[in-house]
């Protein structure tokens, strides 16, 4: 294995393996130094070492690795012309974690490493700035204590607050060198009270810090974050040890964080913050209020210009918007790190489109830059009209617009409350003073996040943006009383409003506005940049994206979203309307005459529905599935006496007799009972009615000038004989309809593949069927033997125990169910090489499953719910690149 990769001016080329081995941060540092940007020198200890540290080395650093670390350190000393641990000319280091995938705020950093009782004096002498030296030392004591020895940060913060109070000052920067010396003394006492020793030996500091970063990879916070983000397959984190440069050496020094473009809107201007005379964590922690990056131009024009030039070089190199940390030490700019910046949905699309326009990337690359979650955000509800009086009147105050989108929910003040709400299906707005990594679960479950403190790069802002959660932060007119269970908002006119936990609140993450109550929201439209982008997506993708739509309204919505047709029309969904359900009940429970009468009415309803759908889908295929679910789903509950009495009256029978009949139809395992084609075979009159409705509707639509393309699909086939039976029935009805009308139309008869036996005998079924569509919901149910309706009782525990990696009803189990799918495709196309094969289960809208269907299974199309169509289009295009 390769343990160490140096970077910096004279470091030479980095180790191979990129991010996977060096971590994102390490790979970027190596690349920045190769581009000739001024990066403080250092070295990266690889992710392979982390893996071995956690799994092989028993959480210790072996001597041969340690020797190499010390040798790399010497090279850094030479380049910086200083020595680690030397009081005369000290080198200080930063030690930071950095995995291949960025995990903002989840991992650990130790700054100013290499300070001790002698070095602090030496540094004070050398820089002539005692305040700076003691400030650096007290920062180091706090970070080292917290990150490496796990001493609670609050113990240090309390001491600092006490001293500030005693000295009568508000800001840290108002403390003198003598004050800070006192802080250092008190911080050392904190170590003592915790029974810990602060190592004066600087090499020991380094050894412990590297170990702590590696250990942090297996800490609860990091594990939870990876779980939520579904980050898998990483070796571990790398450790970057780098020469410190100082932003707190007076008024010609400073530090900041900036994006090369606006991560909310995507507009091509710098977006960031900096502080003069400060160190990195001051910006992130929100203790001092940072200044807008544009102000740097006036203060240090040369540095600003160099920074702008650097952002251009980096964007060109990485072909993407960058998130950059920098420090200015006595007028000299140092680039500390760069990475592809997290962004909201709107920005993701605009940046992708702009980068193509600027010639930095191709359309194919652009398509990879927008994540399915980004589209999801754009396709989420927004406030319909922010100019409306009702909207404007509801605005109470403003914070920073940290992450766009409209969020409406009930105020929840704790992680636990948000999670509890989520379990009950109650939407939450998480309201906090500021968020910390301990809040990630609640943040993930909330509709939106509101904080009183913290800037645009605070924890809440970065995490929320990554997840596309609307977020308003730094809302200074908000005060949160977690214990009292309420919040108070000071309005512009100075008056105050109090809200209790559980009250409704709305957030506009685009503008930072905080609104009273439950505001109305509206669906978005595909226009502008999004339209351009989606046109590229369609050019690039290889497979069609159809939709699961049961009504003309759904069909219309899906077509607006770019669907190439309907892959599944669940005809039974049309029966659930109140005026129709009683007809269905008459059909099931009545005598022959009553059943016939009911069928006549249902024929009319269905014909109208299908006609509407054909019109909306003019020129595109419409796959109608014949009745599928168990009959008793349509039956009344015998416990509802009023309903039973009414129905008994309609049918001219007694409640007693009706009850007996309903009970006789109950099944122990309805999902494995009388449903699908079994229903069609035992109750052919229903299929006759449905076939007639479909074909008459098609003929009517064609007469009205519509290009209607009906496909009729038989559900739950396990034996070819079942399919043959239904096919003959459909064909005979078609013959009568065409004779009666003196006209005919083209139509296809196909089947769903959703029973393992159908997959195993796909070659037989392919002889008869004109198309296949995987019912991956049932196929998953029957392959695993997990009841679709009862998985809630054990799947969450399977997921947390790692028995399941994903919920198989959400993301296709490619290993098991996927094999049946591939086998079906092979066997089916062995008989009919051009057989159209798609999928219409929930997996058709899941990006990872779409990749499998497109690339590995070779399907012709996926079909998913209307609002997921754009996401499936994107996933299909990404799979094709
Ligand atoms: C399926 O089983 O995947 C399917 C699409 O049908 P339904 O969900 O209606 O059973
Ligand atoms: Mg099914």
From TrEMBL:
Class in the EC hierarchy, top level: transferase
Matches recorded under InterPro entries: PEP-util_enz_mobile_dom, PEP_util_AS, PEP_util_C, PEP_util_CS, PPDK_AMP/ATP-bd, Pyruvate_phosphate_dikinase
Domain PEP-utilising enzyme mobile: 428-512
Residues annotated as domain PEP-utilising enzyme C-terminal: 528-879
Gene Ontology terms for molecular function: ATP binding; kinase activity; pyruvate, phosphate dikinase activity
EC code: 2.7.9.1
Domain Pyruvate phosphate dikinase AMP/ATP-binding, residue spans: 21-56, 67-293, 306-352
Domain of life of the native organism: Eukaryota
Signal peptide extent: none
PROSITE patterns: PEP_ENZYMES_2, PEP_ENZYMES_PHOS_SITE
Key words, A-Z: ATP-binding, Nucleotide-binding, Pyruvate
PANTHER family: PHOSPHOENOLPYRUVATE DIKINASE-RELATED, PYRUVATE, PHOSPHATE DIKINASE 1, CHLOROPLASTIC
Similarity annotation: Belongs to the PEP-utilizing enzyme family.
Record-given protein name: pyruvate, phosphate dikinase
Organism, scientific name: Nitzschia inconspicua
